[in-house]
Write a structure and sequence with these properties.
The chain has 216 residues and is an alpha/beta fold. 29% of the residues lie in helices and 28% in strands. It contains 5 helices and 11 strands; from the N terminus they run E-H-E-H-H-E-E-E-E-H-E-E-E-E-E-H.
Length: 216
Amino acid sequence: MQDRYSKEIIPIEGWEREETFRFFSTFTQPFFNVHTEADITPLYTYCKRHGLSVSLAYMHATTQAARQVENFLLRIQNGQVVRYSGLDVSATILKDNKQLAFTHFPFHEKLADFCAEGTDIIAEVRKSQKLFHGHQGIDLLHMTTLPWFTFKGMEHAFSIGHEEPGIPKIGYGKLEMRDDQVYLPISIGLHHALADGYHMHLFMEEFEKVLKRYSL
């Protein structure tokens, strides 16, 4: 499948992560997961004020943050490490028949534009019988939401025995209201050959920066 974003090859020989990459590339399960939460009160308030989807809004904020962290842009393709110039989202949508659909959401810089197109996409997908909708390449973030309950941990399904491209896997839980604050459970899974815990820290820093913009 053709990529939506341009990419460049990062030579593994001499790369600062060369030893780490070669070590974790031998693992049959190379992903590690961190489960945390984010205070999304400013974004939640903004969405309620402007009539926007909160779930689409935190998907958009997540993508904005991930685009600022190089390790979230890295993938493994044909044994090589590549860095993409951008990312979109493939998220699970619950259809009217209560089955899942893996759905592509093109990125837009403006939240309102992302939500407008996203709302139209969801309306179409909910009536569909297909499992996959839109672009499903590796220049994506994989997202899923479990809006019925909060969680303290989450693992993702994956296949063993083929090259794993290392697409980040992000899961969200039910929003939790505490006094006047709104918290979003979030699970982040990264391929350890491409990223470490420090890079999750960078992502969460960027995520918090995006959220704070909506308090202005």
